[in-house]
Design a protein that fits this description.
- The protein is built from three helices and seven strands.
- With 113 residues, the protein is of the alpha/beta class.
- The strands form three sheets. A three-stranded parallel β-sheet has the order 1-4-7.
- Helix 1 crosses helix 2 and helix 2 packs antiparallel against helix 3.
Length: 113
């Protein structure tokens, strides 16, 4: 298992990350890469299909076709969010997902600021 997967799994399982070690470098590299994708999501308007493709790239798996996530969107890590079918996430969300966020099917977040 690659260092990235080891560190992310440790975070999802509630492990304590040593942020004075290579784990910090690994997390920082992930954040830098995913910030570029988040910037793409937020810097211009996209169709639902284009947004879903960008979120799939960010999350690291194919976001279900029945799921819609609106922009602007932000996350501290970006690749530790797991959404299932028929999910709606409205605009202006900030996900703190280092430890993982799991959103089950048929969840709707209609609120905005």
């Amino acid at each position: 298992m690659a260092e990235k997967e080891i560190v992310l799994k440790k975070a999802r399982q509630g492990g304590v990350l040593d942020l004075s070690s290579e784990e910090l470098v690994t997390i920082d590299n992930i954040v830098e890469k995913n910030t570029l994708i988040i910037d793409q999501i937020n810097q211009k308007s996209h169709t639902v299909i284009e947004r879903r493709a960008l979120f799939s790239k960010l999350f690291g798996y194919q976001v279900p076709e029945s799921t819609d996530i609106k922009a602007p969107f932000n996350a501290d890590v970006g690749c530790q969010t797991f959404v299932k079918e028929n999910v709606f996430i409205n605009k202006d969300c900030f996900f703190m997902d280092l430890g993982g966020i799991w959103i089950d099917r048929n969840v709707k977040n209609w609120s905005t600021r």
